Amino acid sequence: MSVLDLARPEIRTLQPYSSARMEAGGGQIMLNANESAWQPVGDMGLGCNRYPDPQPAALVQALAQLYGVKHEQLWVGRGSDEAIDLLVRAFCRAGADAILIQPPTFGMYAVSARIQNAAVIEVPLKADFSVDAQALLAAVTPAVKLIFLCTPNNPSGRSIPRADIEHLAAQLAGRALVVVDEAYVEFSDQPSVANLIDRYENLAVLRTLSKAWALAGARIGSLLAHPDVIALIRRIMPPYPLPLPCVAAALAELAPAGQATARENVAIVREQRAIMRSALTRIPGVREVMPSDANFLAVRFDDAGTVYQRLLQAGIVVRDIRRYRQLEDALRITMGTPEENARVLTVLSEARA
Ligand code: PMP
Q1: Which residue of 27, 66, 331, 353 has the fewest CB atoms within a 10 Å radius of its CB?
Q2: Residue 80, ligand 1, Cβ within 6 A
Q3: pTM for the complete prediction?
Q4: Of 63, 151, 208, 295, which is best to mutate to test ligand 1, by the most ligand atoms within 8 angstroms of its C-beta?
Q5: In a structure prediction context, what are the per-residue pLDDT tens digits for the chain, which is 353 residues long?
Q6: Domains along the chain?
């Protein structure tokens, strides 16, 4: 049994699009892709008149090193959003298969599944926002091909213990692909489970440069998985997902100076998270500030709607998460600069006067 047996049979046999860049690169005179021979105005040496490498070797190498995996275990695309979408399309037959999620959680798993006409099976998190492993395993039918585990979870901020992830991967071997979304793992004390993909071929990990790496605008996300899964995703990816300026921005951030800055900023966020958590707890009208391993805090208020409006009037936009199960009284506040966070506290303190 291979993890590929879980994938859609028609995808496994699909003849992928063969782009000009895949067929041949490295010539002196490139006349095979109907590109312009002239660089555009303001190109600054990027060479944007040429199609980019579908999987730029330098970026794949830098990300594989960052995440501690082999290059054949990594696919890089336009944010983890694109990896989620491609996984759903590769593994779920429309009208037949399903994904499993644990609400309240990140919305794109269900959206991607619905676009594909795959069913969405929900196993809610427990009242303390931990995963109900027993209920989850009981809910896995043969139709379930993908199980999304979000750790730290958006919007609750809570992490899933590594032992629980291993337990689920072991229990679901040959039955489903466990996809661990680690978008916020850099802000957590708990290390990534990326090194478990060598041990469990049905385990995949999503990482992103959108959060700790300050590159949400460049749209760079990675899928770490068994080489067969990576090869399958490469078969169905769009021909040239990564624009050259975005690749250049990512490489700059992953160079030593960029890494040093990113790590400093992560340290500031972690410090601010602790400061904000205790300060918010003391503000009247705040019911609870949930512990968080991410770069945000989910905060329960007596009247979240009014607090949201007051912040908005002060020019501060937070996320209204009242539509999420178990969070009907909560707002999600991303950690900004220390000055921005102080302003949030000022507005909330004034509000009670
Ligand atoms: N996973 C989680 C848990 C997220 O919160 C987000 C973004 N909000 C994403 C994935 C998508 O990130 P990306 O920018 O890499 O597409």
Answers
A1: 353
A2: yes
A3: 0.97
A4: 208
A5: 789 999 999 999 988 888 777 776 678 899 999 999 999 999 999 999 999 999 999 999 999 999 999 999 999 999 999 999 999 999 999 999 999 999 999 999 999 999 999 999 999 999 999 999 999 999 999 999 999 999 999 999 999 999 999 999 999 999 999 999 999 999 999 999 999 999 999 999 999 999 999 999 999 999 999 999 999 999 999 999 999 999 999 999 999 999 999 999 999 999 999 999 999 999 999 999 999 999 999 999 999 999 999 999 999 999 999 999 899 999 999 999 999 999 999 999 986 54
A6: 3-19+54-254 (3.40.640.10), 258-351 (3.90.1150.10)
